[in-house]
Amino acid sequence: LYAFEANKLPTRAAYEAGGTAFEQLIQTYRADHDGKMPEKLAFSLWSSEAMRHLGILESQVLHALGVRPIWDAGGRVQALEIIPAAELGRPRVDVVVQVTSVYRDQFDGFMRLLADIVERLSRLDEPGNVLASNSHALAVRLRSQGFQTATAERLSQLRLFGNEPGDYG
Fold first, then answer.
1. 79 vs 63, 75, 82, 111, CA distance in Å?
2. Which of 19, 25, 40, 50 has the greatest count of CB atoms below 10 A from its CB?
3. Where are the alpha helices (DSSP H) in 33-129?
4. Alpha helix (H) residue ranges in the chain
5. How many Cβ atoms are within 10 Å of 130's Cβ, its own excluded?
6. pLDDT tens column, 14-32
7. 60-108 pLDDT, tens per residue?
8. Which residue, 134, 146, 166, 150, is CA-closest to 65?
């Protein structure tokens, strides 16, 4: 038996493998869609899978967004860093992430980092930032439906969904 450290997800190796998997996904998508990049992708995260592959699917999410983990000397993810658009060399891809209830309980640290980086990306003013343009369009639509500005802004930035704490249905 050994302890599993949830805050080491994704590992450096998983982040690299996730980058390769994401590139393969993009190549397949572009081949099927006349060379166009996807604007939004949906991911479903499961705790058992995350523990098995140490964060490859999570890394695909990060690569889609154009961000990278910052690890400490012990391999723990301390933060997520936005890759500058010039270095990224392609448009960011917006994401929607669904998590299982057990994932929510085991990987809350990663989920908090992901929610924070999505919020920052939704406000990042750069050409071709589809996440920001999608968030802005949704905020406008929510305000037109009567939501207060602050509430509309907060709701337009949400990309991570799961059951409420204590619900395992």
1. 15, 12, 10, 11
2. 50
3. 47-53, 56-65, 85-88, 101-106, 108-122
4. 12-32, 47-53, 56-65, 85-88, 101-106, 108-122, 130-144, 149-156
5. 16
6. 999 999 999 999 999 999 9
7. 999 999 999 999 999 999 999 999 999 999 999 999 999 999 999 999 9
8. 134
